[in-house]
């Protein structure tokens, strides 16, 4: 009986299947300097190990609680790919996770990213990671590692998708949330920088599929191209929120992402209370009127899909509202009193918006 023969000659290779180990290694080498810029003193090693090590300075805390958050940038990455602009999408990635952490009062400590792509282009990957590092510097956290995965056959060569996980720490007694919110609290809204990273499937459907607008076309309302407006990176609020919590009696933060202002603020309003907000307190950025007008998008759909110009909300003691507004102004973040928290029936809506936005 003849034994089957196994050949290790000139057969199939990993590179032949579309995966380049060398390109991945080149990308890692390009990434290292960007990660190094973000290193906090607690980081114990650099990029390249099997795991990242971070020494938690437990002596600084009485009862430290770790917080974690994972998210991505959604289909905003499709706009970045179409524009061949990859240097800001990483800032969006950081914003999505660190500003979820700070919503409970946690200080972001470190972040790991995951980049999936059809084909590794070391220069493109390093540009994306440079943006992630910029975001980490804005947030005060370290980029300690991550993964770049090549998925030939599953993704087109130029396609990529981003995700990340961040870890933070907060004193147990300082955790913010609905259990701290009281009747009479004031609700302050902090301006978004634009659309941020939610609602891009609707944006692409309205502006690109239905209206067939060119991303490189100049838009008078924006003073720049449509693509540049849509790629405006998210504002990162973590540092200013942590500072605000030190200066004022903050009871809760709400990061305004998918679900809009009402949907996200409701997550920190307890049963039996209601946040009563007035749309006349602020004017949405022009991009929201642009989307609504070209898609005949109903107001209710706009408000549950987009941030409408409010990227973060603070719920705090009424006596501290003036101090909070002054501090945010000093930090160059436009902010407004949106309304107050009042008693309500147990089955009442947690958030109610009244009035109409000026000039929208």
TrEMBL record:
The keyword Ligase applies. Pathway: Purine metabolism; IMP biosynthesis via de novo pathway; 5-amino-1-(5-phospho-D-ribosyl)imidazole from N(2)-formyl-N(1)-(5-phospho-D-ribosyl)glycinamide: step 2/2. The keyword Nucleotide-binding applies. GO terms for cellular component: cytosol. Residues 182-349 form the PurM-like C-terminal domain. It catalyses: 2-formamido-N(1)-(5-O-phospho-beta-D-ribosyl)acetamidine + ATP = 5-amino-1-(5-phospho-beta-D-ribosyl)imidazole + ADP + phosphate + H(+). Residues 66-170 form the PurM-like N-terminal domain. InterPro entries: PurM-like_C_dom (IPR010918), PurM-like_C_sf (IPR036676), PurM-like_N (IPR016188), PurM-like_N_sf (IPR036921), PurM_cligase (IPR004733). GO terms for molecular function: ATP binding; phosphoribosylamine-glycine ligase activity; phosphoribosylformylglycinamidine cyclo-ligase activity. It is found in: Cytoplasm. It holds the Pfam family AIRS_C. This is Phosphoribosylformylglycinamidine cyclo-ligase. It comes from Nakamurella aerolata.
């Amino acid at each position: 009986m003849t034994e089957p023969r196994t050949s290790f000659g000139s057969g199939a290779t990993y590179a032949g299947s579309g995966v380049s180990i060398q390109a991945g290694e080149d990308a890692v080498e390009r990434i290292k300097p960007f990660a190094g810029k973000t290193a906090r003193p607690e980081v114990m090693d650099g990029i390249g190990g099997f795991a990242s090590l971070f020494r938690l300075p437990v002596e600084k805390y009485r009862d430290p609680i770790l917080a974690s958050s994972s998210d991505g940038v959604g289909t905003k990455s499709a706009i970045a790919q179409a524009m061949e602009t990859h240097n800001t999408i990483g800032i969006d990635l950081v914003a999505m996770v660190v500003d979820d952490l700070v919503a409970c009062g946690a200080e972001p400590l470190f972040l790991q990213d995951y980049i999936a792509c059809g084909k590794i282009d070391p220069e493109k990957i390093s540009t994306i990671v440079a943006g992630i590092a910029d975001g980490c510097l804005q947030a005060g956290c370290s980029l300690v590692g991550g993964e770049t995965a090549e998925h030939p056959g599953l993704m087109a060569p130029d396609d990529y998708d981003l995700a990340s996980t961040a870890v933070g720490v907060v004193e147990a007694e300082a955790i913010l949330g609905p259990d701290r919110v009281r009747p009479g609290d004031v609700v302050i809204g902090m301006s978004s920088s634009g659309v941020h990273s939610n609602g891009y499937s609707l944006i692409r459907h309205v502006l690109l599929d239905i209206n067939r607008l060119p991303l490189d076309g100049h838009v008078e309302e924006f003073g720049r191209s449509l693509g540049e407006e849509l790629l405006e990176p998210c504002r990162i609020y973590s540092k200013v929120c942590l500072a605000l919590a030190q200066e004022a009696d903050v009871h809760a933060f709400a990061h305004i992402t998918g679900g809009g202002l009402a949907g996200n603020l409701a997550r920190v309003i307890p049963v039996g209370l209601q946040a009563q907000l007035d749309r006349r307190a602020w004017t949405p950025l022009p991009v929201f009127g642009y989307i609504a007008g070209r898609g005949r998008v109903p107001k209710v759909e706009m408000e549950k899909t987009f941030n409408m110009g409010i990227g973060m909300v603070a719920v705090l003691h009424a006596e501290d509202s003036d101090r909070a507004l002054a501090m945010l102004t000093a930090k160059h973040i436009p902010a407004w009193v949106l309304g107050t928290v009042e008693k309500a029936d147990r089955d009442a809506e947690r958030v109610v918006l009244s009035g109409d936005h000026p000039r929208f």
